[in-house]
Amino acid sequence: xxxxxxxxxxxxxGPYVMWKGTPYAHIMIPVGARK
Length: 35
What we know:
two-stranded antiparallel sheet, mainly beta
């Protein structure tokens, strides 16, 4: 599946998967600089 290639750790710095393995899995995409 497409989500398998994305990390689940937000500190990675790019898009990541939240709630992987559940019906609520979705991709989060950072839109601003990290503080």
